[in-house]
């Protein structure tokens, strides 16, 4: 399997896991968890924008969002990344992008590197969410990649 197809599958999983988190947090009073989910989703969007050279100087990665806004952002992000990855071939992943971090520092990475970062960053914060949900006495959703694969018949 080529990297591009693998990334498409991983971003489909990312969407599935994000949406499960949105559903899990609806109707429960876990402000900190919603803040982490908002951070995860806002960061996904900002990195999407960085793929097009956006200057992120001064960007706030921790804005307040409601769970409803998180749900909308999750849907929008999934659509944007899906459309992006469908336009790319394997060679396109090695295109280099120049952008500025929230501290205003200049960086340059490939699409492959930035897309991989988005997936890892989101996964880390979903792990944080699992802990917050469990510590609040709730059962977190099952979001393991293997469960996604079984449910969607990728394997």
List keywords for this structure.
two-stranded antiparallel sheet, globular, 155 residues, mainly alpha, 5 helices
Describe this structure in words.
The protein has 155 residues and is mainly alpha-helical. The chain has one domain (3-152): dinb family like domain (Four Helix Bundle (Hemerythrin (Met), subunit A)). The chain is 63% helix and 6% strand. It is built from five helices and two strands. The chain has helices at residues 3-25, 31-50, 67-87, 111-135, 145-152, and strands at residues 96-100, 106-110. A two-stranded antiparallel ribbon has the order 1-2. Helix 1 runs antiparallel to helix 2 (31-50) and helix 2 runs parallel beside helix 3. The longest helix has 25 residues, at 111-135. It is globular and about 45 Å long. 26% of the residues are buried. The mean pLDDT is 95.
Secondary-structure blueprint:
Elements: H1 3-25, H2 31-50, H3 67-87, E1 96-100, E2 106-110, H4 111-135, H5 145-152
Antiparallel strand pairs: 1-2
Helix pairs in contact: 1-2, 1-3, 1-4, 2-3, 2-4
Structural class based on helices, strands and sheet pairing: mainly alpha
Distance between the termini: 13 Å
Report the uncertain regions: none
Q: From the alpha carbons, calculate the radius of gyration and give it in angstroms.
A: 16 Å
CATH superfamily: dinb family like domain
Number of domains: 1
Instruction: Kindly report the spatial arrangement of strands forming the biggest sheet.
Output: 1-2
């Amino acid at each position: 399997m080529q990297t591009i197809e693998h990334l498409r599958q991983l971003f489909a999983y990312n969407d599935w896991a994000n949406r499960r988190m949105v559903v899990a947090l609806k109707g429960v009073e876990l402000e900190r968890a919603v803040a982490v989910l908002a951070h995860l989703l806002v960061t996904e969007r900002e990195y999407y924008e960085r793929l097009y050279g956006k200057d992120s100087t001064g960007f706030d990665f921790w804005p307040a969002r409601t769970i409803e806004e998180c749900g909308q952002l999750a849907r929008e992000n999934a659509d944007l990344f899906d459309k992006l990855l469908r336009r790319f071939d394997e060679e396109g992943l090695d295109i280099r992008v120049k952008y500025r971090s929230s501290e205003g520092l200049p960086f340059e990475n490939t699409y492959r590197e930035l897309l991989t970062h988005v997936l890892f960053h989101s996964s880390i914060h979903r792990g944080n969410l699992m802990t917050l949900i469990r510590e609040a006495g709730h059962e977190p959703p099952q979001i393991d990649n293997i469960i996604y694969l079984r449910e969607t018949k990728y394997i």
